[in-house]
Amino acid sequence: MRIGIFGGSFNPIHLGHTALAAYICEQGLVDEVWLMVSPQNPLKQDLTLLDEEERLAMARLAVAPYPMLRACNFEFTLPRPSYTYHTLQALRTAYPEHEFSLIIGEDNWQCFHRWYRGDDIVRETPIIVYPRSSENSEHSESTKELSTFNFQLSILEDPPLLPYSSTEIRHRIATGQDASHMLHPDIAKYITEKHHYTQP
């Protein structure tokens, strides 16, 4: 199958994440999207970052209604920090029957030429870029820097861009505001029951 890798902290995962992932499948760019939950970096303490198993549990709740989406903990067992290049290489070794694409935001594509072994990634892996706003950039530094390579780039047009962010959700919960409209109901319930993000 054609698998799109959509990585992130997902702290917490919200409706914008799943809407975008489902849209990419609906557009026929991939058969499935694996939402790759990034593990916590033991060398960098972030008090707002929930334990990786908690974030994975929420991701699994979020993708449950979508047969073409999967919450993935593949990076949990890889050496850290987990560079995307190493993750993709390990995925190909573990799943030789699949073809993998990388799903990234336009902001990451803008600086992709500075990613670890970014030139090798674009040689080997199709890239799917989603905009961060309704205005797509016609050019980027990465497109210029990597234009000497023969790579497959898909820039999404008119994807669902819900104005949600995990940062805003955490802030709302910490300050006693409602964030349920940004979350799958099961995740909103999970966060409430676990008292996650209640500290500012």
Number of separate domains: 1
List the strand order in the largest sheet: 3-2-1-4-5-6
Which assembly state applies to the chains in this document? single chain
| Total number of helices | 8
Q: What portion of residues belong to β-strands?
A: 15-25%
Low-confidence stretches: none
Q: What is the string of helix and strand elements?
A: EHEHEHEHHEHEHH
Characteristics of this structure?
alpha/beta, single chain, 200 residues, 6 strands, 8 helices, six-stranded parallel beta sheet, Rossmann fold
Could you write a compact summary of the structure shown?
This protein has 200 residues and is of the alpha/beta class. The protein is 36% helix and 16% strand. The model has no long low-confidence stretch (mean pLDDT 89).
Q: Can you put this structure into words, describing what you see?
A:
By secondary structure, the protein is α/β, with parallel strands linked by helices. The protein has helices at 15-26, 52-63, 84-94, 106-110, 118-124, 141-145, 166-174, 185-194, and strands at 2-8, 32-37, 69-72, 99-105, 127-130, 153-155. It has a single domain (2-163), classed as HUPs (Rossmann fold). The protein has a six-stranded parallel β-sheet with strand order 3-2-1-4-5-6, with helices on both faces. Helix 1 (15-26) links the parallel strand 1 (2-8) and strand 2 (32-37). The longest helix has 12 residues, at 15-26. The protein is globular and about 45 Å long. The mean pLDDT is 89.
